[in-house]
Write a structure and sequence with these properties.
Distance between the termini: 64 Å
Number of strands: 0
Strand content: under 5%
Largest sheet: none
Structural class: mainly alpha
Length: about 240
């Protein structure tokens, strides 16, 4: 194993530790290890992706736009250094970080670019695969937040369509946790569009997602959205 390989392995392990424990020192260690790997080859897409992933974890944990912006730059470099499906994955990851930044800073331009990055990934992935479904779900989330931010119903309708496309692959039987998250994204888009029929559908999706959810940490946000949709439907 080369020194760069060892540093990449260390970066991945420390990042995973940071995700599990919220330990900022582990996240900083993951960043340092990825940078050490880049000392051997500053254009290596594997090292750039690990650097971007660690910066994203730290930025999300600390709600710090500066770290998310650093991750965006790392993923831009990774996109430029990659080809084929590896490049599509970098587009998808870049879109996810742009969505995080857009949500944190209420930045419509970041959300619009996030949608564009997801679409770039979808141009490469074969329709119907798991990577394709993940990119559709990421696209849906970016479009939903953009639609909510700008009042653009076309973006919200496109978000619904992307979720529905993802759900043709991410089924409840095969992957209940992923199905729950995609169904929640669909419910969020339907609730944002409004109207009694859409609100009723969103409520049903929220309830089903809570039943299927395999990560209890996500349940409070879904329950909050469910209560909001129920109250809005009751007052209509």
């Amino acid at each position: 194993m080369s020194e760069a390989d060892a540093q990449r392995r260390r970066s991945a392990e420390l990042r995973d530790l940071g995700v599990r424990t919220g330990d900022a020192e582990a996240m900083l260690g993951a960043i340092a290890a990825a940078r050490a790997a880049l000392a051997e080859d500053e254009t290596d897409p594997r090292s750039l992706a690990l650097l971007g992933a660690a910066q994203t974890v730290l930025g999300e944990h600390a709600s710090d736009p500066a770290w998310l912006e650093a991750a965006i730059e790392s993923y831009r470099r990774a996109v430029a250094a990659s080809n084929g499906e590896d490049r599509a994955r970098m587009h998808r990851n870049l879109g996810a970080v742009l969505s995080l930044l857009g949500r944190l800073t209420d930045n419509a331009a970041a959300l619009a670019e996030a949608a564009g990055q997801c679409r770039a990934a979808l141009e490469v992935y074969a329709p119907g695969g798991l990577d394709w479904a993940i990119a559709q779900n990421n696209l849906a989330e970016a479009l939903r937040m953009l639609g909510e931010h700008t009042g653009d119903t076309d973006a919200l309708n496109a978000s619904v369509a992307a979720c529905q496309a993802a759900l043709t692959i991410t089924t409840r039987a095969a992957s209940p946790g992923d199905w729950a998250m995609t169904s929640t994204n669909l419910a969020n888009a339907l609730a944002a569009l409004g109207g009694n029929a859409r609100l009723a559908e969103a409520i049903g999706l929220y309830r089903a997602a809570l039943e299927a959810l395999d990560d209890p940490r996500l349940a409070p946000a879904i329950r909050y959205n469910l209560a909001w949709a129920e109250a809005r439907l009751a007052s209509s």
